[in-house]
Amino acid sequence: METYESLLAAVTAADGGRPVSDPATGEVLGRAPERGTGDLEQAVAAARTAQPDWESLGHEERSRLLNTAADAVDRSAEALAHLISREQGKPLNGPGSRFEAGGVSAWLRATAATPLEPERVLDDESGQATLGYRAAGLVGAIGPWNWPALIATWQFAPALRMGNTVVMKPSEHTPLSVLALAAIVNRVLPEGVLTVLPGGGDLGAAMVAHPAFDKLMFTGSTRTGRAITAASAANLPRLTLELGGNDPGIVLPDADPAAIAEDLFWGAFINTGQTCAALKRLYVHESLHDEVAEALAGVAARMPMGPGTDEASMLGPLTTAGQFRIVDDLVAQAAAAGGRLITGGGPDREAPGNFFPATLVTGPPADAPLVVEEQFGPALPIIAYSDLDEVITHANALDVGLGASVWSGDVERAKQVASRIEAGTIWINKHGTVHPMVPFGGVKGSGYGLEFGAEGLKSVAVPQVIAT
C-alpha cells in the first residue's frame, strides 16, 4: 500500500528546488522541482507529438483509461489525502483532504461517463446539419492552491476525455499534491498526454503567451485572469477563466435559523473559507439577524481548529502567511469601523502556523473592505436588512458574480429572489455545492466559460458542423 512518505519521496526534488512548507507548523516538508521555459518547450513538443494518437483512441477508450486512472487514485487516496493536508492545510476529515482525494476519482469517473453525442440541428427539405465536437489540441492549465488536486482534475479530466493533451502548472504553494496526482494517473496514461510543470509566475507567463496552446484554463484571482486574457490575445486561444468571487447569501424572514445554521457555516467556512464559491457576505432579515448570528456562533464553537493531520480537526490553517495577513487586516478594519466580533478575531500571531479562528462580524458598514473585498478566509460579515429590493441591489453591486444563495422556508419564493441575482450559480438553502454533471462558471469579474457535465466537455473542444 502506498504511503504518504513514499508518495512524497516520488515527487520531491533530489536536490535544489523550491521549498514547500506545512502551513500548520512552518516546517519544510519537501522541495518541489523548479521548471523553466526550456522544460516548457520540451513538454509542449511531447504533448503535440502525443495528441493525434490520443485523440484517435476515441471516446470509449479514453474513458476506459480515465476510469482506470480513477482506480489508481482510489488505491493511493489515503497517501494523497495526507499530502494535501500537510501541504495545503485542510483537515483530513469533514469536507477536507479525504473529501478532496475522493472527489478526484469521482470526477474522473463522472467525466468518463458524461455523454456528448452529435446534435442534429437541421433536418428538413433544405438539408441536414449536425453539430459535433472534436479536440481543441493542446490545453494549458494553471491551477490554484486552495483545492490543488481536485481543481487540477476539473481541468485535465475533461480535456483528456475530449482528446486533448495537457500541460499544467500548479500553484507554487501546492505543487507537490498536483505532482503526486499526476504521478498516480500517469501510471495509466500514455507518455506525453499529461505533464505537470511546477514553477513560479515566470513559467505561468510563458505558458499563457505561448502560441502552441489551443486552449487555456485558469482558476484564480480576477486580476490574474485579466492579465492572462491580455497576454494570450495575440494567439487567440480559447479561454476558460474561473476567477474570484464575493458570494452573497440572503436569508429571508421565513427561514429557520436553527435548521440552516450548519449549512450556512460550511457554506462560508469550508476549507477555512479558502474557496472561490464560498459564502463571503451574509445578509439576514432584521427579524432573524440576532438569532442567525447566535446559531452560527454556536456551530463555530463546535468546530475544532488544528493541524490538518489531526483526526479531530475540522478547520485547518490558512495556506499562506500572506492570506493570514489579508484576513487579519480585513477583520481589524471591520472592527475599527464599528463591526462587532461575536466570535473569533484576535489570532495568536506568535504561535506557529497560519491559524486564524473562525470569525463572525455583525454590523459592519456596507462599504467595509470585509464586505466588498474577497477575504478568502474564515471571517464572515453578517449584515441586517429590512428591504428585499435594497438587499438584492447590495448583492449585485460588486463586479463579481460566481455564486450566491437564498435561504427560505418557501422554495418557490426563494427561486423568485434567486432569479434577480447576478451570479453564475444561485443555491437554495445551501451554498457552494458542486456536482460533476451540473455546469459551473461565473459572470462579470468572476470570469467566463463553463466547467462540468456536457457543457464542460464542450468548453475544452471545438465545435464542428457537417452540413449536407
TrEMBL record:
Keywords annotated in UniProt: Oxidoreductase
Record-annotated Aldehyde dehydrogenase domain positions: 18-460
PROSITE patterns, sorted: ALDEHYDE_DEHYDR_CYS, ALDEHYDE_DEHYDR_GLU
Active-site residue numbers: E242
CDD domains (UniProt xref): ALDH_AldA-AAD23400
Entry keyword Transferase: no
Disordered, as annotated region: 15-34
Entry similarity comment: Belongs to the aldehyde dehydrogenase family.
Protein name: Aldehyde dehydrogenase family protein
Species of origin: Streptomonospora arabica
